[in-house]
Amino acid sequence: MIGTATLTQFNIHQQRNYSVKRGELTLLLDDVARACKSISHAVNQGSLTGTLGAAETDNVQGEVQKQLDVICDEIFTDALIWTGHLAAMASEEVEEVIEIPSRFPKGKYLICFDPLDGSSNIDVNLSVGTIFSILRCPEGIETPQTKDFLQPGTQQVCAGFCIYGPSTILVLTSGNGVNGFTLDHDVGEFILTHPDIKIPKDTAEFAINVSNQRYWEAPVQRYVDECLKGIEGVREKNFNMRWIASMVAEIYRILTRGGIFMYPLDNKIPKMKGRLRLLYEANPMSFIIEQAGGMSSTGRQRIMEIQPDSIHQRVPVIMGSYNEVERVVSYHM
Ligand code: AHG
Ligand code: MN
Ligand code: MN
After folding, report:
1. What pLDDT is stored for residue 229 in this prediction?
2. Is 52 exposed, middle or buried, given 0-12, 13-18 or 19+ CB atoms closer than 10 A?
3. Please, which residues have CB less than 5 A from ligand 2, an ion?
4. What is the pLDDT of residue 195?
5. Closest listed residue to residue 135, CA positions, set 112, 108, 156, 161
6. Ligand of minimum distance to the alpha carbon of 248
7. What is the pTM of this model?
8. Does residue 116 register a pLDDT over 90?
9. Is the distance from the beta carbon of residue 114 to the nearest atom of ligand 1 less than 6 Å?
10. What is the DSSP string of 113-177?
């Protein structure tokens, strides 16, 4: 099937193989894929449409929004709100849960999304992406509220991200492994190009924003210090370092050749309890990483087992190659 199956064909085959009734999910994923194609186009147009640079607003987290953050949020919402497959939506860029207007039918799923991850990279023409997580709407709930989104990551039905890089690639899991689909711009279809992605258990590459080093806790200080000592230290091998400031790009690299990605707990802004958002970033990426044979933790807890307490909650993130994440977790014990 490699290089020939479209995303829709692949999903229908999976349904047949696992004999599960997931017609509505397949349709929802088609909608998500269509939204990602539109975002890919908007991101690609860049200066041609005058959409680079900052917007005049801050988002709910008090972060400066880029024009494309706002545009991509609208594209994603508009592509999905009318389709009848969702009961409600939650966006990193929007304070409250997005309700489905009464003129549209409602479906049985909830979606959480980061419309444009790594948007600080937009103006410098580096890879950015869209991240999403699909949950079931709790039984009997007609109009989902914030509390209905507060489900641990283990409840995710499906998660994925689309990276807008030299190629546009959609990476998906529904709990049966991880598959990657490259957008054929001429045909307008995502084609299966990376079936059953597995992350190497070991790695010699780490990713962390070292400018925060003085704020880290001791276990992360120790781990990074040992990596930096290389062949002369206890690890007895040299490490390489990467930091793209775009989680989609870091995670895509780790899926491709292994590695460890960390945005750990630090005391830079103590009340923040981490940088990355649980519902829009940490949970969907954890589902993908675990399904690809990697590990994902805050250092003290499996990320997907965290009971969320708010939709915009942030958490520490340590994820990637299994043995390396396990080591960092052991340093926290
Ligand atoms: P977003 O663009 O959605 O706000 O997310 C950016 C995130 C993540 O993609 C990246 O790993 C991290 O923030 C970058 O943080 P620094 O600015 O501290 O490098
Ligand atoms: Mn993000
Ligand atoms: Mn974002």
Report:
1. 98
2. middle
3. 114, 117
4. 97
5. 156
6. 1
7. 0.96
8. yes
9. yes
10. EEEEETGGGGGGT--EEEEEEEEEPPTT-SS--HHHH---GGG-SEEEEEEESSSEEEEEESSS-
Asked if residue 47 has its Cβ within 6 Å of ligand 1, the reply is no
| Residue-wise pLDDT tens digits, 223-233 | 999 999 999 99
**pLDDT per residue as tens digits for the range 136-146:** 999 999 999 99
Is pLDDT at 35 greater than 70 in this prediction?
Answer: yes
Residue owning tokens 């690890």:
235
- Residue 38's SS3 state is helix
The protein residues having their C-beta less than 5 angstroms from ligand 3 (an ion) are 114, 116-117
Residue whose entry in the numeric block shows the structure tokens 């991880």: 178
Residue given tokens 């880029």 in the structure block? 66
Radius of gyration of the chain (CA): 19
Measured from the Cα of 246, ligand 1's closest atom is: 9
How far apart CA 171 and CA 178 sit, in angstroms, is: 7
Q: Which ranges of 258-293 would DSSP assign to H, the alpha helix? A: 283-291
4 CA to centre of ligand 2 in angstroms: 31
Three-point CA angle 194, 196, 198, nearest 5°? 100
Which residue among 114, 130, 208, 209 has the greatest number of ligand 1 atoms within 8 angstroms of its CB, and so is best to mutate?
A: 209
Q: Indicate if ligand 1 lies below 6 Å from the C-beta of 245.
A: yes
| CA of 92 relative to ligand 3 center, distance in Å | 6
Q: Phi and psi dihedrals of 320, rounded to 5?
A: 140, -145
